């Protein structure tokens, strides 16, 4: 694993919010513990030829990244299988599009290691879109629901 591969790995880890990573092969072993508070910050990796950022480039970047819509998102806090109710058989989902939820309301459950964990809303609003189906596997920090 060369420096470029390590940088790519760090970028992926940061994107998916991974806190711990271990890799090993015949030639090397790599173990990384990333603090949760720095998930959105750049890591102290300096490329061989650092890119120059001009003030003009900085001014255009936020405009390109700003979303067109103001939807709030509720994201998964763990990896597992998402359910719209506490049973695996879907009879009546906890939420549906158009429901108005408050901060702290249960919006579904994530089964991880044979334990059903409640997923609660960290925002209040009206459900515009449910992005994960009942019984679908989800990743950490994956968007589950969009609110307006």
Low-confidence stretches: 37-51
Q: Roughly how many Å apart are the termini?
A: 44 Å
How much β-strand is present in the residues? 25-35%
Fold-level CATH name of the largest domain: OB fold (Dihydrolipoamide Acetyltransferase, E2P)
Oligomer: single chain
Q: Which CATH architecture of the largest domain would you pick?
A: Beta Barrel
How is the main sheet built? 4 strands, antiparallel
Mean of the pLDDT scores?
Answer: 77
The first-level CATH class name of the largest domain = Mainly Beta
CATH superfamily of the largest domain: RNA polymerase II/Efflux pump adaptor protein, barrel-sandwich hybrid domain
Kindly state the number of beta strands: 10
Strands of the largest sheet, in order across it? Answer: 3-10-8-5
């Amino acid at each position: 694993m060369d420096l470029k591969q390590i940088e790519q790995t760090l970028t992926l880890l940061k994107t998916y919010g991974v806190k711990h990573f271990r890799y090993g092969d015949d030639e090397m072993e790599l173990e990384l513990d990333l603090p949760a508070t720095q998930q959105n910050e750049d890591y102290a990796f300096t490329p061989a030829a650092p890119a120059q950022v001009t003030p003009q480039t900085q001014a255009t970047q936020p405009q390109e990244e700003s979303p067109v819509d103001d939807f709030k998102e509720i994201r998964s806090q763990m990896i597992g299988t998402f359910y719209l109710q506490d049973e695996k058989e879907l009879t009546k989902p906890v939420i549906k599009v158009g429901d108005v939820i408050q901060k702290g309301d249960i919006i579904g459950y994530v089964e991880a290691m044979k334990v059903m964990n409640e997923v609660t809303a960290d925002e209040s609003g009206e459900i515009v879109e449910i992005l994960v189906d009942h019984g679908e596997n989800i990743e950490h920090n994956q968007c589950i629901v969009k609110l307006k």
